[in-house]
Amino acid sequence: MSLEKFFYDNKLPKLFAIACIFWGTVGMLLGVIAAFQLAFPVLNFSEYFPHLAFGRLRPVHTNAVIFAFVGNGIFTGIYYAIPRLLKTPMWSNFLGKIHFWGWQLIIVCAAVSLLMGFTTGKEYAELEWPIDIMITLIWVVFGINMFGTILTRRERHLYVAIWFFIASWVTVAMLHIVNSMEFPVSFMKSYSWYAGVQDALVQWWYGHNAVAFFLTTPYLGLMYYYLPKAANRPVYSYRLSIVHFWSLIFLYIWAGPHHLLYTALPDWAQSVGTAFSIMLILPSWGGMLNGLFTLRGAWDKVREDPVLKFFVVAVTCYGMSTFEGPMMSLKNVNAISHYSDWTVAHVHIGALGWNGFLTFGMMYWLIPKLFNTQLYSRKLASTHFWIGTLGILLYAIPMYWSAFRSYFMMKAFTPEGQLQYTFIDIVQTVVPFYTMRAVGGTIFLAGVILMIYNLIKTAKAGSFLAKEEAEAAPLLKEYRAPSGSIWHSVIERKPILLLVLSLIVVGIGGLVELVPTFLVKENIPTIASVKPYTPLELQGRDIYIREGCYNCHSQMIRPFRYEVTRYGEYSKAGEFVYDHPFQWGSKRTGPDLARIGGKYGDSWHFNHMLEPSSMAPGSIMPSYPSLFENDIDKGSTNSKIYAMRKIGVPYPDGYEAQANSDLEKQATKIATGLKENKLEISSDKEIIALIAYLQRVGTDIKLESKTNK
Q1: Is residue 7 left, alpha or beta, with left meaning phi > 0 and alpha meaning psi from -120 to 50?
Q2: pLDDT tens-digit series, residues 304-315
Q3: Which residues are registered as beta bridge partners of 469?
């Protein structure tokens, strides 16, 4: 049989690699700045640069690291690996270019819009509806190009890495579409179709599985390709990879509710999330061991080769994170870890160790290949390895320490039954840990800069190999499976079947968890006294979301003695039926606000937003002077009320016409009350709306309790 000659185009892997390294540096730099802002709030520079305050900067950091750094890393690895695994060029260079430039445009739009305050307020899904549509279109372009390449391949069987790429593509598409269902209010403003408990479940079904199918499964595909390549050894176990793949994608999708333990989510959903999270240890560790055992007999090479050093620690961090995650889903452990810095440490072991180190190892292996040369300095790469490892340790250990210290202080009572520490006392004791975390992040970033220098010198020493010649036999139309082949080989020969089966496997868990929560009314009992927000309160809530207050404050009191004593009556599912989106939060850098309404006077909130430390000495919250200068956007009130009515909030028909009139009456009342306290402010300013919202939060349930007495 004659061999066919063709070329691998290396331009796309090169472009994505450059983008990965560039955006990774930017994302990590923003993370370092945000970390120092928590330790030293003066660095928020709120008076001069309100768009760079922590609440807006933090989602830019998370989106930059997840979708810009890791996303471009995934595409770098895929565009290099898939043609070589399938012995064919990418199906369309034109679609590849659209994918590359479209993805970079999305990243820029995301950064600019988030800094401007355009956010949905849903973690890892903060981007507004026009950018969501852009993501969908570019993801489809990527999928068409990937499947076009698979269908025109010269290699009949699909290697395990491609299984993970296919499952990642179809699952991310499903997650993104379901979670991004929103009702547009204006060009860059929307409200989630879901509310309260339902919104929380959908968000963390998405949030957990975005980690699973964007930060994990595609990187497992990269591990299965690049680790054996770097070690020059076959994968340890083909059969284990089959078990690893199918059990992982089936179990992972169920685990989202473990982010909502002890909340107002129905108990059955919490229990399902916990059970499947525990089961996840087995396939996760199966994949880790498959990776590490691939290096059997090559440990002498590991000691010498910086690429393999990065890969070994990356896979080990994957194993640590996928053991720690299920442990944190146990209710007694989650009671400590949730809303604490433990979660931050856990996430960064995965992000810095698993995603970061695997990406760095891949770059150190790939860039010399693309430029047809040797790595400029193995010694500098090894130095980067040790600097990065030190950075991870200095980042994570203080966060674990902070979590346990704050937990034990939070639940401490005096012999008389009073809380022993105020929230601000606890904050002050963990600030040194925040400083250490920031230093650890800085050290990690220094290692990245060292890598950039090394890779630039490597590229300059070589010559870019734009087209790499290859040859392979054409795919025979007639094929008979060899004797002794297992059942799974049939699936490996049929990419569309693999795609459909992957969608079915991941769809089962989502349907079982989400459908009953939407269709069974008993899952979300209603409370008669809970009413929609007034127009002014709605505007204030949008300002609260715009400024990223949800990044530091939760609105979910769990049924623990110390939380109820500190914050008030524990939260009920029916309280949140008009919350589009929900605001339960995932981290308490500041106190929970679920019962903040009526706790302090309007003047307290006024002064607290102007200068937090004047009301709470020692606070690390930034000030918000812009709220005292910006006018309430009354022009958007009518469209916001209309949108809310369309998604089920029971405002009267035609209420839009009088909404601004009611807004002005309530605003005037608040401004008049402030004036009586010698605080002069126009009723048109945003601070008035924010005060109205904060004074409303949690008060409906109080009215209910008074009625029941």
Answers
A1: beta
A2: 999 999 999 999
A3: 7
